Give the backbone structure.
Amino acid sequence: MSRQADREPRVVFGFHAVLARLRADPSSVLEIYLDETRNDARARDLAALAERAKVHLMRVPTRRLDGFYGGGRHQGVVARIEIRKTSDSLDEILEGVEHPLILVLDGVTDPHNLGACLRVANGAGAHAVLAPKDRAVGVTPTVSKVASGAAESTPYLMVTNLARTLSELKERNIWIVGADERAEKTLYQADLPESIAWVLGAEGEGMRRLTRESCDLLVRIPMRGEVESLNVSVSAGVCLYESARRRRAPA
């Protein structure tokens, strides 16, 4: 099946992202670079945590931190991390999973949106996030920062042919459910299956025609105020957590 996006040593930056990775998987943190002028509580806490985890921390000038990714808001801390290779394909990811929960993003090219989608997918317990290679962004330092650790723990697969991949998911008895503002039923009215791949398009453009036609079911998120649509990561959260809620609900 579809190959996963390359997993190679990656740079993450910002206190939240670095601390999240250090707490979740300290052995994957190769080294940390901390601004030599930072001596506030956050910097001291990070240094203490790194010492306990036996992770090498270096005090460096700000300009060296800027050089890692061409400048930006690193907040004075950058870490190099090793990406764990969990699997090479969706087949391996779903092996032994009784009721898969998958997020499919069609046309999400903004790194902030992707990072937020990975974060919410991780929080909802999704098994993977899929996207087409020709209409998606890879995992960049910005994506990692926004995802706050989820980019390194939630499988993100960029597939060559999205329609074919959705067809392969159907062969596994996974329903393809698209979020579409033109759908008749809301996601709260629809009978959602336990094995489900939620498909969302980019804000404004929505899903491509072929992607929409590949869906077994289309539902909409009810909008009760003046705004016409939600950010894709917010929509992803609504849909994924509705599936998670129904799975936990008593019979």
